[in-house]
């Protein structure tokens, strides 16, 4: 049975992954790095996205050479299962991301179950808050952060609650079907990623009546189509 090559986190662009797979498969690879299947493989893809953002930041703001960048990334995130579960390493990386990269990307929260939950959940929500503010181009006040995984945002004099639901296995933003009150809406964000583009679209249309996303919606081929067909 042919072994599936691992996904390199150092690809510069998403469409280069297939090329990178072929190149990496021709090199001697640590066996532990070839054992990724299912969820771990998706984790590696998410790491690759974070690496791409980091790469662009280092090149633009620090004028680092390509070899320096690759060495730095390799030292910071060796994609091995034991490192993914390493609490301190992921905490440091997340903190650096928020302090150093101007809060312009989404922090994936696969690792919340492994580490300093009371700290990490706040980091994820803080990153979410700044990214949302940037996309909406408006002032948003982070009113409160509570446990577990809850934040209240004040935007345009209206309050919005946000929950991160680690128990949902789907890789899609799930919006509740109704407003709690006229000034308060509830959003449930899945474990795999915070889908800011979709959420920003939803928030820009406050008169939308949401409906519950069913399994049929989630497993449709075009998952994003659902969000563009909500009734106005």
From TrEMBL:
It comes from the Bacteria. This is Protein involved in plasmid replication-relaxation. It comes from Ureibacillus xyleni.
